[in-house]
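Need a sequence for this fold. Nothing fancy.
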């Protein structure tokens, strides 16, 4: 794996040069390129070609699984994700077509309704269908969860959630036994799949309903998502699951209690990057720890 721990200081040109070669093999000529976003964990460029716009993404090492995972999901559930045009696994690079507008309606879309006083985030009319399709994707992938580990996607089955908690234990002490017990019980349901870990309308293309931006994804219990549990249309997601297989209220309850730990997993990775870029997300981490404490109160 050649992907760096951080891409904050990585030059753009090697990514563009690779993209140019890959696109040339597909009969496309690059006519321009522009850096669109740079963070410690991702570098995104828009590339203009004689056949339309293409996006090139370089990910830091902890998120370099995105390209291989997209390729695998496209193969297993065609149309559910944007099909990557090319993947450079060792460097953490991939190319994708321009998916057009997302389903995002505004900045409030990404908010969590963490308690009864918070207004639920807005959702587009198509959102219930998106959640149902996403549940179907996860159900299909359950039988391939072990093979998806070959993509490099972080493997976090319920029994390993305690490892995330231990990093934050000094800020939310006294929960270790309860978390281990709940995780062991959830593990007995034997359900593993891919979890996007940041599913909201801004990560879904409007025209195709394809889900993108899988950099935070995990292989874990499919219900372990704070976004799922705090979504105003969560019922559609669980209804879709129950149409496919047996799901008990207890399994849902256990997953809801443990879900903050999968969210914290992403911020744990960022927090340990050079320069500690995660410091600006400290308020969000505090919210997740408060939620975890409340779930086990």
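Here you go.
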């Amino acid at each position: 794996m050649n992907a760096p721990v951080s891409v904050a200081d990585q030059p753009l040109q090697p990514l563009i040069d690779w993209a140019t070669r890959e696109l040339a093999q597909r009969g496309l000529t690059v006519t321009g390129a522009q850096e669109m976003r740079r963070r410690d964990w991702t570098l995104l460029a828009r590339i203009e070609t004689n056949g339309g716009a293409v996006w090139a993404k370089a990910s830091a090492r902890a998120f370099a699984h995105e390209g291989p995972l997209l390729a695998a999901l496209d193969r297993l559930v065609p149309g559910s994700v944007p099909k990557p045009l090319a993947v450079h696994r060792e460097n953490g690079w991939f190319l994708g077509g321009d998916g057009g507008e997302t389903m995002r309606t505004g900045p409030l879309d990404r908010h969590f309704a963490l308690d009864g006083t918070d207004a639920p985030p807005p959702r587009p009319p198509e959102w219930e269908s998106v959640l149902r399709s996403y549940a179907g994707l996860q159900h299909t992938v359950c039988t391939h969860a072990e093979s998806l580990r070959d993509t490099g996607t972080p493997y976090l089955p319920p029994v390993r959630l305690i490892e995330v908690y231990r990093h934050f234990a000094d800020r939310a002490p006294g929960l270790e036994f309860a978390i281990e017990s709940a995780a062991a019980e959830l593990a007995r349901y034997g359900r593993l799949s891919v979890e996007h870990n940041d599913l909201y309308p801004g990560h879904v293309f409007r025209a195709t309903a394809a889900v993108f931006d899988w950099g935070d994804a995990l292989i874990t219990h499919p219900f372990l998502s704070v976004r799922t549990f705090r979504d105003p249309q969560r019922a559609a997601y669980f209804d879709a699951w129950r149409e496919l297989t047996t799901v008990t209220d207890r399994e849902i309850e256990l997953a809801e209690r443990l879900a903050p730990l999968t969210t914290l997993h992403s911020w744990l990775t960022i927090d340990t990057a050079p320069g500690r870029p995660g410091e600006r997300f400290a308020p969000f981490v505090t919210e997740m720890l408060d939620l975890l404490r409340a779930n086990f109160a």
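For context: Residues 112 and 118 are 8 Å apart (CA to CA).
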